[in-house]
Write a structure and sequence with these properties.
mainly alpha; 11 helices
Length: about 200
């Protein structure tokens, strides 16, 4: 909890994340959020001023938690460098599977509306830059091209498959809800992209 948030604000932010994940942004109302948080609608407006401000805060919170992943995972010196990269991408898949509505909400503005100034893009770019820097520091090299190109390609392969798990399962037989299948899928990507 940050210094400027109270336990009630934290509850409202958490409830907003849950509601976005469950129904997306389309059906999200202040009343639904308040009900999920166990507060009245006036509390939402009191603490955040508007539903839009609250949604922005909730999405920002979710992205900032994801942005910590490269440091936590790639900094774990107890495992082999390629294994760290595998864990990073397996964690991305797991996150998309756990929070599909939240991921759709995050990418909807840049993907569907062409909003190149969406906060998600800046945060995700920072995430990729941090991952690229840390992977480069591990001493492993991509087979072809720069690390940035490899990370875009791997991230695309991971996000697309995780956002459409039925397609991955029906077309390729890979069930990404199975941890072993996730491991196999990401290990295959790493073997194709890294020496």
């Amino acid at each position: 909890m940050s210094p400027e948030t109270s336990p009630v604000m934290e509850r409202i932010i958490s409830a907003t994340i849950e509601c976005i994940n469950r129904t997306g942004l389309e059906g999200l109302t202040t009343r639904v959020i308040a009900q999920q948080a166990g507060v009245n609608s006036a509390a939402v407006n009191y603490y955040f001023g508007s539903k839009d401000n609250l949604v922005e805060k909730a999405l920002s919170r979710a992205m900032s938690e994801m942005s910590a992943m490269p440091g936590e995972i790639l900094g774990d010196e107890s495992i082999d460098p390629k294994a760290r990269v595998r864990v990073l991408f397996e964690s991305m898949i797991e996150g998309v599977l756990l929070y599909p509505g939240l991921v759709r909400a995050e990418i909807s503005a840049p993907l569907m509306l062409g909003d190149e100034k969406a906060p998600f893009l800046a945060l995700f770019t920072d995430f990729l830059k941090d991952a690229a820097e840390r992977i480069t520091g591990l001493g492993i090299r991509p087979r072809e091209g720069e690390i940035a190109v490899v990370l875009i390609q791997m991230t695309s392969a991971v996000l697309f498959a995780a956002m459409l798990p039925a397609l991955a399962r029906e077309f390729s037989g890979i069930d990404l809800t199975d941890p072993q299948a996730r491991n196999t899928y990401v290990s295959l990507l790493i073997s194709r992209y890294f020496e």
